[in-house]
């Protein structure tokens, strides 16, 4: 892989379906479902968190150096398609220019990673990223996000 090229970070298999609740006495059913999921090739929760974290850190590494054309292009390749397209439209004229204009904060260390099915959130010291699972791996769909009490995050970089 050429220097500066983004390596898409992908889990070896899609995330397992998430079940919020299990009826009482359903242990045998839950164990059978877990065995089927394992045999079917979906990843474990720890592997999912690791894959989302790796995608976020890869994006952060390239986004921090976005002033360099190669790094900006590599960071854009790690974005979800709708996010990449939104940056190319506004402010435009390209994803790379939009990413540079977004002036994302230096992310700092990972504080926590949450995965909910095909969606993930990586909370960093100075930023928060949201990721989505695609067939070729985890992609960043929003960055430069700050929490707002009882309202959605406000993000500098996001797709439609």
What do you see in this structure?
The protein is α+β, with helices and mostly antiparallel strands and 160 residues long. The protein has one domain (46-158). The protein has 5 helices and 5 strands, in the order αααααβββββ. The chain has helices at residues 27-40, 45-64, 69-77, 81-89, 95-102; strands at 110-116, 119-124, 128-134, 137-148, 151-158. A 5-stranded antiparallel sheet has the order 1-2-3-4-5. It is globular. Mean pLDDT is 80; it is low at 1-13 and 17-41.
Could you give the order of the helices and strands? HHHHHEEEEE
Shape: globular
Task: Show unreliable segments.
Answer: 1-13, 17-41
Measured on Cα atoms, how large is the radius of gyration?
17 Å
Number of beta strands: 5
What is this structure, in a nutshell?
The protein is α+β, with helices and mostly antiparallel strands and 160 residues long. The chain has helices spanning 27-40, 45-64, 69-77, 81-89, 95-102, and strands at residues 110-116, 119-124, 128-134, 137-148, 151-158.
